[in-house]
Structures are given as C-alpha cells and as structure tokens.
User: Fold this.
Amino acid sequence: MDNNQDLIGMILSLFSPQATANQSKKITLPIQQEISFYHWYQRWAKIMGLDPNPDDPRHHYDYRAAYLAGAEPTIQKEDKRFHWPSEFKGEGHPNLFVNGVDTSKIQR
Assistant:
C-alpha cells in the first residue's frame, strides 16, 4: 500500500465511532494541517520504530499537540534513546509518573 492510501485510510479511520471516542481529548486539525502532521509523524515513526498510526491508543501521547508546539524528541544521555517531551504524555503513559512525580507537569 502506498503512502497516499495509508493517509486516506488514517483520515477515514478518524471518523469511526471508536476513534471518535478515543480522540475526545485530542486536538482536531484542519485537513491540510492534518496531512502535514501525518507526514511529520510518519517520518518520526520510521526513525523511532513507532506504530505508523499516531492515534494508536497504546501510545498514550498527543502527537498532534507536540506537532503544533514544534516539539521533537531528543536523545537522552542516560539511555541514548529518543524521548518525546513529557508535557504531551497522556493518561496511562508508562512514564507519566516517575518517582511519584507527574512528569507532564514539570517545567523544562
């Protein structure tokens, strides 16, 4: 399947009842911005080995908010892996709370 078919499928899936329920707290973008976001996300998904669906509920991360903020992952010294900014972590993210601290609320 080519990239345009993937994009069309992803956009159509946004309107399914399940996706609508999952997206209730996520940002909705105008179609042109959604297309730009999709390409931006696909690039990072390939680099980082992420699921190509930015709305996969296992992410627990608001990639659209990160995109709109101009955020990108950085490589951490401790584990030499990419990490996204914590402020866009969603409920259920495995590293939302570290040592009892809500990492999404930390000012950087």
Summary: The helical segments are 3-13, 17-22, 31-48, 63-69. The chain has one domain: 3-105. Residues 98 and 104 are 10 Å apart (CA to CA). The mean pLDDT is 75.
